[in-house]
Design a protein that fits this description.
The protein is of the alpha/beta class. Helix content is 31%, strand content 17%. The protein has 18 helices and 23 strands. The strands form 6 sheets. A 7-stranded mixed beta sheet has the order 6-5-17-16-15-7-8. Strands 18-19-22-20-21 form a 5-stranded antiparallel beta sheet. Strand 3 and strand 4 (74-80) form a beta hairpin. It binds iron/sulfur cluster (SF4). Iron/sulfur cluster binds next to helix 3.
Length: 555
């Protein structure tokens, strides 16, 4: 069974509401007792001192801050960090049970070559041979980490570096060509928006960092007839986000582009915006027909959208028509709009077409069901076996909090952040990361520690931002870069200054017409799935009736 982000978040919300009224907690306690007696693989934590340490969840690109309870050197419980300015203490259900994952029966513990057992020596020899024979594509699912810098440096020398981006980052891509700014330097200033027009983006189902939008929505919108934050959800089914939005606009599947074009036409014709974009070719009648509305209703919707500015449109894919709405109503670089959060990020990696690819190396951060677009021998790193792997080599990677890594800024964030996920567990000797693996072929590559060290020096040099740990400390008041590094190693997060409006020149000469891109079909919430779930979450998921089955979600 596949568990997607939406499943996890819907389940989480349902559980929070329903647990108090069901026998599930008591049944669960009973079951847990039975497991601990009967399942030999369930570890018995060592006896020893109990400590609470801070780190960050590395299971997906959200990088939520965590307090981890460690007994005798083993993590035995996880909680959110209330003082974290991004999550405010929120975690998804997967994060709450993450400490169980290292003991999961599907944890990869040996090298496999075409489903038979092999060894690291053989895998390294095969990879070195491939590197010597032709270009290698390295696929990273979580760019911006220290390991990403190592993988990228390797790929630039030996082939090509690619990012298996998620739909949240893809939704920012259309702005790249209109602003000249890479998508990973852009974010959404949700905190200052008054109206959010979401085209199927699951804002209340696991979009962005847990806690960020749900907190805003709870503070400024929940249960209020005329809220301070209006969420207008355009979607073909009554999702959780649609059900809770200020207004749900029910449209037929695939009519989002027509709706966006029609809205632009009405806004320009009725002078509801200072026109900053060209007129779309679609007529109002065509747009209204496609969206299943009458023309009067269409015009009323356009007026309601811009009634309370700032207005921000968010797509669930890389639709340029939806992105163009933000240009039209002046949300680019504006308060409550699409903002540039950083000017230091590494440049976007240009797609490089290689004549032939000898091998593909897939980092453990890439979602399990990712399929390489090119041929070549596949070296796939993963901590857990999600089943049905087509990789030639399956290579066991470090699990939960077993590896030093950096948490870069989350894709939708308006503020730049930087944190260090300190390893709290010694990895088993049979696992290695992809960054270490490429280091065996190319000894000139640097290490994660050195990358973190130089980033801290850089942050200290510019004297900007704040470190949030046990205390809140302005970087300008710190005495040295070492002090900042020390704070980050102890679980603090550095956040940059809020973006100042302006500074994002955007030019849109022609209204983008529907391109029929295959990405359009991607359902955001189904695009990221966990290869395995912790036993606690699996048990609740299967035995409670607190949530709708995935197959019925779109019914
Ligand atoms: S959203 Fe991602 S990073 Fe946050 S707790 Fe869940 S799995 Fe971990």
């Amino acid at each position: 069974m596949k568990f997607t982000r939406r499943d996890l978040f819907v389940w989480g919300a349902g559980a929070a509401a329903g647990l108090a009224f069901t026998p599930v907690p008591w049944k669960l306690l009973d079951d847990v007792s039975i497991w601990s007696q009967n399942w030999p693989w369930i570890p018995q934590p060592a006896r020893g001192p109990v400590e609470v340490k801070q780190s960050f969840c590395t299971l997906c690109p959200k990088g939520c801050a965590m307090k981890v309870r460690v007994a005798g050197g083993w993590p035995v419980g996880v909680a959110g960090v209330n003082t974290n300015p991004i999550t405010g203490g929120a975690l998804c259900p997967l994060g709450f049970g993450a400490h169980q994952l290292n003991w999961h029966p599907r944890r990869l513990r040996s090298v496999r070559h075409n489903t038979t057992d092999s060894s690291w020596t053989e895998a390294q020899a095969a990879f070195a041979k491939a590197v010597g024979e032709g270009p290698v594509v390295v696929v990273d699912g979580y760019p911006g980490r220290a390991a990403s810098s190592v993988l990228r440096a390797f790929a630039e020398k030996h082939g090509s570096y690619q990012i298996a981006s998620n739909p949240e980052s893809r939704a920012l891509r259309p702005y790249e060509q209109w602003t000249g700014v890479p998508a990973h330097e852009l974010g959404y200033d949700l905190e200052n928006a008054r109206t959010i027009l979401s085209f199927g983006a699951p804002l209340l189902d696991g979009w962005g960092t847990p806690g960020r939008f749900t907190r805003l929505w709870a503070e400024r919108a929940a249960g209020v007839a005329d809220p301070q934050l209006r969420l207008i959800q355009v979607e073909d089914s009554l999702s959780r986000t649609a059900a809770r939005a200020w207004r749900w606009v029910h449209i037929p599947t695939g009519s989002e582009s027509a709706l966006a074009g029609g809205l632009a036409r009405v806004l320009i014709e009725e002078h509801l915006v200072a026109a900053r974009g060209p007129m779309p070719s679609i007529t109002l009648t065509e747009a209204a027909n496609a969206a299943g509305m009458n023309e009067g209703g269409f015009r009323e919707l356009a007026r309601a959208i811009v009634e309370k500015p700032p207005v921000l449109a968010i797509a669930n894919d890389d639709s340029p028509e939806i992105a163009a709405l933000n240009v039209l109503w002046g949300a680019m670089g504006a308060r409550g709009g699409v903002v540039r959060r950083s000017k230091r990020s590494e440049a976007a990696v240009p797609e490089r077409s290689l004549p032939s690819v000898r091998a593909v190396l897939i980092d453990a951060s890439v979602p399990w069901d990712y399929a390489p677009r090119t041929g070549g021998e596949v070296f796939r790193f993963a901590a857990w076996d999600g089943g049905d792997s087509k990789a030639d080599w399956l290579l066991p990677a470090p699990g939960f909090l077993e590896e030093l890594t950096v948490m870069p800024t989350e894709a939708t964030s308006a503020i730049e952040t930087y944190a260090v996920a300190t390893p709290l567990v010694k990895p088993p000797s049979e696992v290695h990361s992809a960054a270490d693996f490429v280091g065996t072929v190319d000894a000139t590559l640097t290490t994660a520690e050195k990358i973190i060290h130089s980033r801290c020096e850089e942050l200290f040099r510019v004297r900007k931002g704040t470190a949030y740990g046990n205390d809140t400390t302005s970087v300008a008041k710190l005495e040295s870069a070492q002090k900042l590094e020390e704070l980050l190693w102890k679980g603090a997060i550095w956040t940059g200054d809020p973006p100042s409006p302006g500074g994002l020149r955007c030019e849109l000469k022609n209204w983008p017409e529907a391109a029929g891109d295959a990405h359009r079909a991607v359902d955001w919430a189904n695009a990221w799935s966990a290869p395995v779930l912790p036993p606690l979450a699996t048990k609740l998921y299967r035995e409670s009736s607190l949530r709708e089955a995935p197959e019925r979600r779109n019914a």
